[in-house]
Amino acid sequence: MARKTALVIAAAALVAAMFGSALAADTLADVKKKGVLVAGVKDSTPPFGSVDPNTKEYVGYDVDFIRAIAKKAGVKAEFQPVTSANRMPMLQEGRVDILAATMTKTPERAKQIDFSYTYFLTGQKFLTKVGTVKSLKDLEGKAIGTAKGSTSEQNVAKAVPSAKILSFDDYPQAVLALIQGKVIAVTTDESILAGQLGKLEKNPASKGKFEIPDVQISEEPYGLGMRKGDTNWVKFVNDTILEMEKSGEAKKLFDKYFAPDGDNPMKRGTFKITADERGIK
Ligand code: GLU
Description:
Blueprint: H1 2-24, H2 27-34, E1 36-41, E2 44-45, E3 49-51, E4 58-59, H3 61-73, E5 76-81, H4 87-92, E6 98-100, H5 107-110, E7 113-115, E8 120-129, E9 143-147, H6 151-159, E10 164-168, H7 171-179, E11 185-189, H8 190-202, E12 210-211, E13 218-222, E14 225-227, H9 231-247, H10 249-258
Parallel strand pairs: 1-5, 1-6, 9-10, 9-11
Antiparallel strand pairs: 2-3, 3-4, 7-14, 8-11, 8-12, 8-13
Helix pairs in contact: 3-9
Bound molecules: glutamic acid.
Glutamic acid binds next to helix 6 and strand 11.
């Protein structure tokens, strides 16, 4: 009897689990029902995700992609700040519907979540005081700052095994350690470093003192993150990205944040990705 009861309970649990995941797997329907798309974005990583100090609104390349997807779905966009370390749990726990958070598509991450088509392509470099780093040799045995839970953390450990890696919650904290001389470099995607360099350039105390040497250790294709097996949602997001590409909206967005003639650190010539290389795959 007890065994039979146990079996019935197990079967019921299985059905509930299947139902649960089937329900959870239609984020597109959920979003339309709620009338709002909740996206996990960075809040201190310009030009991808940051909060405008005047309007208090989220702004950036990642943020604009979400606004475009929300518009296509006919719903409002809402933003939740995420860090490199907590973004996947935030998605998997259902606290956000999608991640647009400078996130590199990797095979390990793709075992846990689904990614959209690549919507941005960059590579990992270093932010340093001017003249201190010319090659990876200059980093050997030194302290280097980066963010917890990032690919940057893993790549630098492989590229410079003798370095002491200090992992912070976000990149501005790593930059603070660089300013204070606690690390010789901050390492992450060049596109993120350029945003941090832009902030340093705006401050008279740090203007002209920092640079991004031409030392690259990886390629980082960004994808929007969604829950595993959320097929309708992934298709909707991918279709929207392709439409934005065809209509020229994606190029407009790219030019808005990365055009060489804008008020943007990318004009410093360290950023090599052209519009054609954004890598829609
Ligand atoms: N793109 C890299 C990553 O996904 C570094 C940037 C970040 O920490 O978000 O880990």
